[in-house]
Input
Amino acid sequence: MIRFECDYTTGAHPKILEALVSTNGESTPGYGVDEHCEHARDMLRALCQTPDAGVHFLVGGTQANTTVIAAILRPHQGVLCAETGHINVHESGAIEATGHKVLGLPASEGKITAGQIDLYCQEHFDNAAWEHMVQPGMVYLSLPTELGTVYTLAELEEISAVCRRRKLPLFVDGARLACGLAASDVTLPDLGRLCDVFYLGGTKAGLLFGEAVVITNPNIDHDFRYLIKQHGGMLAKGRLLGVQFEAFLEDGLFLDIGKKEVSQALRLRRAFEEKGYPLFVNSPTNQQFPVLPDGHMAALEKNYSFEVWEKTDEGHTAVRFCTSWSTADGDVDALIADIQKL
Output
């Protein structure tokens, strides 16, 4: 079985493993205050051009999302996001479990707009019953989105401007940010100046585990380590995160991984399009969503794993093929050959 259902089916990139093995015998302080974590923090601050940012390493995306959102919101507030956003559909109510409501907005190919955010806030405060409703307290985006689409720099700048005018902290989920950077005109320094918080994901880009949260708003960074501990995210062997991120950031490895993931996915996209299959969404990243006749889907399921996404009509289904750091040319070649035979 050749696996395309997600981008974390295999272990770690060889350079990540080499770094872990070479430092395995070291004895360091725990909980992320070791030299490796400090060095990785400095590396990321330099890449983002945010010398005063707080940088915190957590194990996974849901843990990062719940901790950041809990740090930002007051008890009466909720988080605005696309109705298809990860925190709304794929985290088992983790945000609600912290006591905060997810306020979903209608999305176009996974994205929301500055105008939608502004209008939601305006309608909330214009409503005579405003104090009886959950107040919008922050905005959550993901880059890429749950559907593999990306925000342009212009769109992100517009959203950031509305958030600052409305005093809404802007949080960008970067679980697949390596791919987002490879497929958009957004850079790490752009995120550093436009967001209050964002993170660079490692779990879906060749690390064994790990997400690097960058907090540019000092009010959110204040006491953030208490919340990491409270949410079960303070890894005792914290240096394992620092070592991985040192290797991940060294010589732009994270950018190379993102480019490879996107390149392999676009090879698949071309094969699906050449076969005549429509795309459920126009994704430029490592997630591709062809709409297949159900019979063709069943034929591919014999040798390939992929995610069934959504029925589009009685005889067709949108599916997701996802590439990763370890997706081999031969596996892509084999799938393309089988697509051509359908």
Notes: The chain has a mean pLDDT of 96. Residues 253-275 form the longest helix (23 residues). The longest strand covers residues 135-142.
